[in-house]
Amino acid sequence: MDRIPILKMGEFLLVTIQVDMHDRLAMTLQDDLTEKIVDTRARGVLIDISALQMVDSFMGRMLGNIAATAGVLDAETVLVGMQPAVAITLVELGLSLKGVRTALNVERGMALLRKAGG
Amino acid sequence: MAIVLRQNTQPVHSPEDIVRIRQVVRTWAVQIGLNLVDQTKIVTAASELARNMVDYGGGGDVLMQHVENGIRRGLRLTFEDRGPGIPDVEKAMREGFSTGTGLGLGLSGARRLSSEFDIRSKPGEGTRVTITRWKS
Known about the structure:
The complex is a heterodimer of chains A (about 120) and B (about 140). Chain A is of the alpha/beta class.
């Protein structure tokens, strides 16, 4: 089965979503990330969605769940790189991703995680 | 009345089909000349409605049509299933209404993302949702 790779960078985990995810792949990512946070004792998770051309309510819920679960495990989640058209569509869809921290790009996302960790 | 310039039907029965529908709708939206935001809106609406069909309607078909109405051109998508139907369409259209595990944004969200929206459902016979995005 396909999997989205999760990279470890120091205290943080980095996920780059580069494919149009089907629902099971999104669920697997959620499970894999949770496991990896515990295994690596990560303090933060950075999710790069700059390659995603759309985020629907299912993916939005998955991203919210990841952030919530990571939070319970004492890890901060930052979502980076959302395309403007995706952001406009998400808001119009009725999804504001409350509880998910966002940053414009990977660099700013990392800075946010470091600040949260320190 | 809109004239159909081109049309095509795609079956939707599995989560993989939902991904394929998103890709095919994107290709059509680009060919018709919708701008990036409108492409994203109709692809996202299509994803919501295709998932509804798979999750609640037992799968179905998506009819894609390149339509023209006077000087306007656009993309029209019709999602038709032969599932259990929706007993109370008005209630189902309300934001946050869900019988499943979703957020209940599927129908109301798809309506907000479309220029035109139409839903017909008969209990025991199925549901048909039609959305249109006109080129702005």
